[in-house]
């Protein structure tokens, strides 16, 4: 592999017309993380962490009795408008990694007598619920 890697490195375009670039891949300094700070976006990282945490919580509750495993379900969210927008923005990702077919935003928390809602997760930013269909209650 070293010969192939070196050959590919030699064919890459060099910045500044090759000045100040290493003549060989073997002696090229390893890139430092500080070189990529311009691509670092803390907002996106926080948003993706929120979504992946929610996906983990959703998937862990498919083992809960009464939650259909093979039928798409609707995810109900009680949260601020910014978090609700975030879930809508990442809906396709959530859908592909869980068995969610729709996301609904709740205006009010489900009450104790609304037994069709199954509580999934609570964080400081949101609360997640599944809603059972009539034939599963």
TrEMBL record:
One of its GO terms (molecular function) is ATP binding. It comes from the Eukaryota. Keywords: Aminoacyl-tRNA synthetase, ATP-binding, Ligase, Nucleotide-binding, Protein biosynthesis. One of its GO terms (biological process) is valyl-tRNA aminoacylation. Its EC number is 6.1.1.9. One of its GO terms (cellular component) is cytosol. Gene3D superfamilies: Isoleucyl-tRNA Synthetase, Domain 1. The keyword Cytoplasm does not apply. Belongs to the class-I aminoacyl-tRNA synthetase family. PANTHER family: VALINE--TRNA LIGASE, VALYL-TRNA SYNTHETASES. This is valine--tRNA ligase. It comes from Rotaria sordida.
């Amino acid at each position: 592999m070293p010969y192939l890697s070196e050959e590919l490195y030699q064919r890459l375009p060099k910045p500044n017309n090759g000045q100040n670039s290493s003549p060989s891949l073997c002696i090229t300094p390893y890139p430092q993380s500080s070189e990529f700070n311009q691509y670092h976006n803390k907002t996106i990282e926080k948003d993706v962490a929120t979504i992946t945490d929610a996906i983990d919580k959703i998937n862990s509750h498919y083992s809960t009795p009464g939650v259909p495993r093979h039928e798409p379900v609707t995810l109900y969210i009680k949260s601020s408008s910014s978090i609700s927008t975030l879930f809508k923005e990442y809906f396709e990702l959530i859908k592909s990694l869980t068995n969610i077919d729709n996301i609904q935003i709740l205006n009010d928390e489900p009450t104790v007598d609304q037994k069709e809602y199954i509580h999934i997760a609570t964080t400081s930013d949101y609360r997640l619920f599944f809603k059972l269909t009539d034939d599963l209650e």
